[in-house]
Write a structure and sequence with these properties.
This protein is mostly helical and 260 residues long. The protein contains twelve helices and no strands. Helix 5 packs across helix 10 and helix 8 packs antiparallel against helix 10. The longest helix has 39 residues.
């Protein structure tokens, strides 16, 4: 509770630190405008037209329903992969044998193309939520698993010996030695897995479900509606940025105050 109150009190600081990210977004839009000038409306619609189209979409109730469906699936898959990857990665990292045995499996999962998992999931589970969530989990899980595994295996025994020499309690060793080290590996893995979840969920929806942002993208593709497709992409990426910078980033800054 105290950590949450500290995040709320210091929220303007997080907001101010976002100006650098905003500058990069404006640079991206400028390059987008340049691409429009070079290639024309059909290949790359004008940013202004795309954002107008996005505002029109946001006035449609159906778009909000589809967006909620996509976010629900992405967050469900991310939550499962984040928790399972963390627990199994920590367990594997505690044993050198388990670590060596699990690395090839993680590499196989990382190297398996998401489209292959989607096809298999469609055969196994049919066309629906389970196919999408399964694909998100199996694509995001190895990212978190490897992060947790590396964090556990690289823990410096000297810090543990130092804490033991001062007769530190188990809670103090966890709070000041183990947790900061593991967090520096696991949290970036969670951020990567979150981005992967957003990418995979749309691909899976486009191929396997009649609803969600992926289904709307399929409709835009069939109508050669490039502006509509880009507007949906902006909507999806915008939701990801909101979650990352308004939820994940404040938590990261709060937990890593020790770095300052």
């Amino acid at each position: 509770m105290n950590a949450l109150l500290n995040i709320i009190r210091a929220f303007p600081r997080y907001l101010w630190s976002g100006w650098g990210a905003m500058a990069s977004i404006f640079l991206f839009i400028a390059l987008w405008e340049l691409g429009y000038q070079l290639h024309g409306e059909l290949v790359l619609p004008e940013p202004a037209n795309t954002f107008v189209r996005l505002l029109q979409m946001l006035q449609e109730e159906q778009v909000w329903v589809e967006m909620q469906t996509t976010i629900r699936r992405a967050l469900a898959g991310f939550a499962i992969s984040a928790l399972a990857g963390l627990l199994l990665g920590l367990m594997a990292g505690l044993s050198a044998t388990a670590s060596m045995m699990s690395r090839p499996l993680a590499t196989i999962l990382m190297g398996m193309p998401p489209i292959a998992w989607i096809v298999l999931a469609m055969i196994w589970f049919g066309m629906g939520d389970l196919t999408v969530v399964f694909t998100v989990v199996v694509a995001s899980f190895p990212i978190v698993f490897i992060g947790a595994l590396q964090g556990t295996r690289t823990l410096d025994n000297q810090y543990e010996e130092m804490a033991a020499s001062f007769h530190a309690s188990w809670w103090l060793k966890w709070k000041d030695v183990y947790f900061p080290h593991l967090f520096s590996f696991v949290f970036p893995a969670w951020i990567s897995a979150l981005g992967m979840s957003w990418k995979i969920v749309v691909m899976a929806e486009l191929l396997s479900t009649p609803d969600g942002i992926g289904a709307l993208l399929a409709t835009a593709r069939s109508h050669l509606d490039t502006a509509g497709a880009l507007a949906l992409v902006v909507l999806l990426v915008g939701s990801l940025l909101l979650i990352e910078y308004l939820l994940m980033e404040p938590i990261k800054r709060e937990v890593e105050q020790w770095r300052d």
